[in-house]
Amino acid sequence: MSQSWTISTLAERLGGAWHGDDVAIDHVASLESAASGALAFLANPRFKPQMAQSAAAAVVLKAADAEGLTRPHIVAKDPHLFFARAAQLLHPARVAQGGVHPSATVSDAAQVDASAQIGPGVVVEAGARIAAGAILLANVYVGRDVIIGEGALLYPQVCVLDHCEIGARVILHPAAIIGADGFGNAWAGDHWEKIPQLGRVIIGDDVEIGACTTVDRGALEDTVIGQGARLDNLIQVAHNVEVGAHTAMAACVGIAGSTKIGARCQIGGAAMISGHLEIADGTVVLGGTLVAKTIHQSGVYSGSYPMQEHGDWLKNAAQLRHLNELVQRVKQLEKQLTALQVASGEEKQ
Amino acid sequence: MSQSWTISTLAERLGGAWHGDDVAIDHVASLESAASGALAFLANPRFKPQMAQSAAAAVVLKAADAEGLTRPHIVAKDPHLFFARAAQLLHPARVAQGGVHPSATVSDAAQVDASAQIGPGVVVEAGARIAAGAILLANVYVGRDVIIGEGALLYPQVCVLDHCEIGARVILHPAAIIGADGFGNAWAGDHWEKIPQLGRVIIGDDVEIGACTTVDRGALEDTVIGQGARLDNLIQVAHNVEVGAHTAMAACVGIAGSTKIGARCQIGGAAMISGHLEIADGTVVLGGTLVAKTIHQSGVYSGSYPMQEHGDWLKNAAQLRHLNELVQRVKQLEKQLTALQVASGEEKQ
Amino acid sequence: MSQSWTISTLAERLGGAWHGDDVAIDHVASLESAASGALAFLANPRFKPQMAQSAAAAVVLKAADAEGLTRPHIVAKDPHLFFARAAQLLHPARVAQGGVHPSATVSDAAQVDASAQIGPGVVVEAGARIAAGAILLANVYVGRDVIIGEGALLYPQVCVLDHCEIGARVILHPAAIIGADGFGNAWAGDHWEKIPQLGRVIIGDDVEIGACTTVDRGALEDTVIGQGARLDNLIQVAHNVEVGAHTAMAACVGIAGSTKIGARCQIGGAAMISGHLEIADGTVVLGGTLVAKTIHQSGVYSGSYPMQEHGDWLKNAAQLRHLNELVQRVKQLEKQLTALQVASGEEKQ
């Protein structure tokens, strides 16, 4: 089953130029830990000393860093991307072992492709459809009428609630919760009245969603995660949010209801995005930034308090509470100084 | 079983005035997606163009927005609240299918009402009591001596640990974790010593708690979530916190130990609240605010760094680290200017 | 089985001096709720009135606070630590009930010690080794080749994914997710290419990890949590992070990839730490701080926007966006004032 690789076959398959002996490669590793059979990569020329010490069978790197190199190596335009793809070939993803574990509970009214793998303790409700090659690991829950796309991989403890749709090749990490109710409440004078959440979550093909990330179902319309998007762990996506295709967000991000994030955005860790906003395609939001208004124009946006030694912070933060007064004092100084300058000028005349 | 509704029966049941043909209503929808049979609502007069285009069978709106309207509609004092209640009638909540799934593990020493629904893979430990009409979906865990109130709904992967009490009609979304140990450690010179967490979590009636939200058990006393409170996803409630009745908090909030939050507060997303504080009834904390001291007086509180284009942020954040020095420079300027003014005045005399 | 304790036996076992009647103690409690049989402790002299009212059988306190006290009490150097240890004795931790629940799914190719407790719905994959006295509560998932150390306690819904190692006496709270893929993606011009995550998570002995906390596996090398570390709930630990021994972090912290946190650090709730940094041993980071650069020197570090009444915040935050301009205005004033002072001095001469 497993294929054997050399630097020439890898370079041919993935697009690169190989040099030196055509050594066999059976895994990827870091420069530091690489041993025989390992392909490593040089991320940055300042790691050349580590490369010199490395026991890697071969190294992937840029042409500029390969000058004079005699050891087996592959020159690639984007060594990081080459390395990612080589790692995929050398460490292939899990393949479905078709069949339903006897401890799973699958409704007679669900459709499960014979090639799909349904693990122990999995529950699949009526009307759900599990496509070919999908893998549902232990204790996954799939609600009524849910669609799980071809080759999707659902790790243990994942929940996909009623009516949601998961695209092909989607990866949902453990305890990702897709389709819980959005946070919808109407104040009724002395208590909150629950607003039933009737929309779905629609997740496009090739999306990856991290552990303990929650994507709420829409209130009336759907919550949508575009094709190829990447969401890290512990992210909150509220009802009716739309995340554009190939947008990536690091862990601990929160997105409030009905916000539309464009395609190919990059959202840094712990950024918090208010509701009912729009963020332009290709926008970069740095970690820890609170986005409280629409971003019409792509660019890089920041907003986090700079860290300091605590004593300095105490002084500066205290003054920050009076910043507006300070501005008024400066205005006053400017006025008075101008008056003095005029007076002094008049005197001179 | 299902009841059929028209705008007259809805208006009569929920308190509103209906106008136009007494059309049949079988679901709610947004103005944009509404089709025949749908009730929609007008949230804001600026959406009147969408209303004009909408295929909704009827619309709920304010009297002021209904002038001259000839299509079937319902005038309500609070259209949002009317709509929420209509949605509850038209899309009724899950009803328990009494019985224990054969794959569940229920202790002989637990009491489960015959009308309660115990789903596949559920575990109920000794001494637990599950009241009438409660629904425990797949793989829920209920620890020893736990009480689950009448009509409570526990979604898949929820954990309620030993001795905790869950009120009537409470909704716990997937992977909500109730009663894990609080974070209690005593430093023992060269390591942390665990402080056993001996309190419980007590959750009042009609509370709703979001997916992956964690409410820790108390150290000695209990952690308490008051009746009707609403907690969104990914919220941390530490040991011995008290959350007042009908307080609502958006996702990603964290509350440190022993803090007491009043009734009817609204806490914005990602707000972080330090330990051992009190927050007055009716307080509003905006998203992203770090609350580091007691709030004695209700009001609206904020504290988040404003987002900027990254280049501007770099400059401003750098200066912020020297804000206190800037204040000193302004003080110095004020002194010197006063001296000059005095000197200049003296010269004139 | 259970041992009976008096203040003399507790003092002898844990190191303290007892005074008054040698009363029996069978549980710990707070001063307020203590009843007969309870040991309470005085955390702070300002709670002496509560102590006077307390029905506790005995109180632990400092020598300085015990002057003139006639009720039964124990004087300890560190009453909090004494109390923690007394609580451990009086409320002993769960002990494994050796055996595999019939609803569990344990691979024939896994090794499970006969004294380990494997609860209902638990899944243990091939190659995994579960050591003596370990407890795996309901629906825990243990992947291929995982090692679970002696006496470890895994609460319901915990996942430990393939190849990870969990030390002895480690406690993993519900839905803690150990070894999900790190967030590794390479941009391929029009989409993200997944970088297989091939490292492990290695968790040292006596570590405690909170509910819904996620610790990602390394990309090539391992993610490491040092012995005795304490992680609260809803924390994100990204791939290749190293957390030093006995470091404690409160809830909602996020640590980005490859950052190395020293030993005995204390990281406050909701602190966010960027990737590829180092933090010195013994560093204290206060809650809500964003750490964006290496901390070479231990100390106390802060960085959070101070909370204000919303109207004040609006004014100050607006000015903050122009802080650099304000600094330029002050510079200008200083220059002009100097010029005036020189001119005025010259006139006088």
Automatic annotation (TrEMBL), chains A, B, C:
PROSITE patterns linked to this entry: HEXAPEP_TRANSFERASES
Pathway: Bacterial outer membrane biogenesis; LPS lipid A biosynthesis
Gene name of this polypeptide: lpxD
SUPFAM superfamilies in UniProt: Trimeric LpxA-like enzymes
Family as reported in the entry's similarity comment: Belongs to the transferase hexapeptide repeat family. LpxD subfamily.
Residues of the UDP-3-O-[3-hydroxymyristoyl] glucosamine N-acyltransferase non-repeat region domain: 22-89
Residues at the catalytic site: H239 (proton acceptor)
Positions in coiled-coil regions: 316-343
A GO CC annotation given for this chain: membrane
Reactions this protein catalyses: a UDP-3-O-[(3R)-3-hydroxyacyl]-alpha-D-glucosamine + a (3R)-hydroxyacyl-[ACP] = a UDP-2-N,3-O-bis[(3R)-3-hydroxyacyl]-alpha-D-glucosamine + holo-[ACP] + H(+)
Signal sequence, start to end: none
Protein name per its UniProtKB record: UDP-3-O-acylglucosamine N-acyltransferase
Enzyme class: transferase
Presence of keyword Ligase: no
Organism: Andreprevotia lacus DSM 23236
Keywords: Acyltransferase, Coiled coil, Lipid A biosynthesis, Lipid biosynthesis, Lipid metabolism, Repeat, Transferase
The enzyme's E.C. designation: 2.3.1.191
GO molecular function: N-acyltransferase activity; UDP-3-O-[(3R)-3-hydroxyacyl]-glucosamine N-acyltransferase activity
Function according to Swiss-Prot or TrEMBL: Catalyzes the N-acylation of UDP-3-O-acylglucosamine using 3-hydroxyacyl-ACP as the acyl donor. Is involved in the biosynthesis of lipid A, a phosphorylated glycolipid that anchors the lipopolysaccharide to the outer membrane of the cell.
Source organism superkingdom: Bacteria
Assembly and interaction partners: Homotrimer.
Statement: the UniProt record of this protein carries the keyword Lipid metabolism: yes
Gene Ontology BP terms: lipid A biosynthetic process
